[in-house]
Every structure is written in C-alpha cells, then in structure tokens.
Amino acid sequence: MNRQDVLELQRHRSHPSVSILLPTHRTSPDNKRDPIVLKNLVGEATDRLIELLGKRDAAPLLRRLEAQVAALDLRRTLDGLAIFVSAEHAGAYLLPVPLTPRVVIDDTFATRDLVFALNRSPRYWVLALSEQPTRLFEGVRDTLVEVRGGGFPMVHTGPGGAASLPKLIDKSRYEDEHHQQFFRRVDQALAPFVKADPLSVCVVGVERWLSHYQSVTSQKGIVATVTGNHDQTPAHELGKLVWPVVADALSVKRQRALDALDAAVGAQRFASGLGEAWRRAGEGRGELLLVEQNYHQAARLDEAAGQLHLVDEGNAGANMADAADDLIELVLAKQGEVVFVDDGALEGHQRVALTLRY
C-alpha cells in the first residue's frame, strides 16, 4: 500500500462502496482467529447489502467480495487488513497498524485508517538492483511487499544482459555502457513512485551495480545502501537485512530535521503549533513539517476564515478527528516533507513545527 493507492481510493465515488476493516496477527496462535473475524464481517456486509439492494441486485457485488476474500492468504498478514469493494473497484491492503473491526457501506471508501498507517509508520522504498531482475519493494519496518507494476520487476534484455555481446575488442566498456543505460531506465521507472510517495530509498546490490546506478540516478532521497547479491533473496529475509540499516539512516534524518528547525528558528522562518502551521501550510509555504510521533489533536476548521481551533477529543464542535494527520496530508499535497520525531522533542513548539520556504 502506498500513497497513490490511498489517493485513488479517496477519489472513488460509487454507491454502495463497501469497506471491511479488521485487526490481524502475524504469528500463531493469535492469527487462528483472523479467518473467523473476517468471515463474520463478510457475513455482516452480505446481510446489509441484501437488505439495501435486494438479493438479486446485490449478487454481482457479493461475487466480487467473495473473490477478493478467496484470494487472501491469512497466513501472511501484518497488523490490520482493509478490503474495499464496489461495482468498479476491488482491492485488499495489509496495514502495519491494528484496526477496529467494522463494516462501512457508503458512497465512498473508509480510508482514514490507511491515511493513519501511511503517516505514522516508518515506510521506505527498497530498490534491489540486478539484471535478472531489478525489484522494487515498499518497506514498513522489517516487512517488504514487492511492487509489481509500473515496469517492475525489470529485466535487462540488452547486450550484457539477456542479449549476448557482439564481438568487440573492448567488451567490458561496451557492457558497462549498456548496464548504465539499463539502470537509467530503472531510475526513470522509480521516479513516479517516489514522486507520488516521497519516501526514503534504500538501494541494494553488488558493488558493480551500485556504482552503475549511482552514476546515473537522479534520486535525492537515497539514505542507505546495502552491498551484496540479493537477486533471489525472499522479501521477508531482505526486510530483516535492510531494516536495521534504514532505521539508523532514519535516525540521522530525524536529527538533521531538528537541526534544520533550529536554523529556521534563527532565521525567523518557522511556525509553531497546529493552528499557525496549518495557516502557513495552506499558503504553500511549508517546507519541512516536524511532528511528535504520538501527537494527535481534534480540531474545528473555520473554512471561511482559514483558521484551525483546537478542541477536546470528542467535542461536538470538532470537524477534524485528528488535525495532525490532516496537516500532514496538507503539507505533502503542497510538496513539503514530513519527519516524525520523538515525543518531547518539540515541547517548545507545542509538539508541531513547520519550517518555511520564505
């Protein structure tokens, strides 16, 4: 699941749109109840759809739901599962956060938990370089999910790859040139993913492939490299290998963000607190948003005045369940960057700080 997935789900409008959300478990014996919980929720969704549409009209949608459930492998899950089905769309997503079990039937899909997972989980891209093939993964901690689409996985079909080399005096140089061309195409295929979901990138490969890729890449978000031949390494093994390296790199990134905030304070180019950060982000001035990891805050947005008023959780006047998440989405939509820091690190900024472009 990536940010583009969520944006597509949020754009979806169709009645009825069915969302089934439930907690799942990664290990036995806890995961033995997951199929039972899912079966009960699917039964609830079925009853509600038949009541809403009638048995005949509900049948096509129920067949899509049944097919989506049948394709699941509940032996390999994370902490939550979200299933979305309508007449035009069907998909299931594993989430690294536990969910409250529920069925939602509406004109839109229930995506709040997906937004939470995107915003609050340490996510990153892993590009595993190889000729046969180069693979792209989305990482959440030590769990990797392979991306299949957008050109990935990508095989080098040219000279030096699947195609044999011509009879040349300097075969090595010719082969290197074509490998660089291949990795340039890899970099071009990666670019749309990073643009849609600007996460840190970890690159994996033997030294030769790393050297070729580093000579052609345009990516600015590469925070770590792991050297070695992992052409055939399974995703679960590769995740355990790269996560400690990425975790260290993300720790360095957090410290750099705090240093950037100190510099912005000295230059008087910052905003503190949700209300002021919201106003500046709405103007498109937000460059880097820092948020304490476990900060959540209900709020009421006065759209006419463009002002955000903080309220107590559960207050009837709130129209934002978590304004911190909404601020994160706003900054990202304006091409800003978001970094989570430890609780207490932004005590002098009311737990939220935004550096400004101007």
Short description:
With 358 residues, the chain is an alpha+beta fold.
Question: How would you describe this structure to a colleague?
Answer:
This protein is an alpha+beta fold and 358 residues long. The protein has 3 domains: 3-118, eRF1 domain 1 (Translation, Eukaryotic Peptide Chain Release Factor Subunit 1, Chain A); 123-252, Nucleotidyltransferase, domain 5 (2-Layer Sandwich); 269-356, 2-Layer Sandwich (60s Ribosomal Protein L30, Chain: A). The chain has helices spanning 3-11, 34-53, 55-70, 112-120, 171-196, 207-216, 235-266, 273-282, 323-333, and strands at residues 17-23, 80-85, 90-95, 102-106, 123-128, 135-140, 143-147, 200-205, 222-227, 270-272, 286-292, 299-302, 307-310, 337-341, 352-356. A 5-stranded mixed β-sheet has the order 7-6-5-8-9. Strands 3-2-1-4 form a 4-stranded antiparallel β-sheet, covered by helices on one side. Strand 12 (299-302) and strand 13 form a beta hairpin. The model has no long low-confidence stretch (mean pLDDT 91).
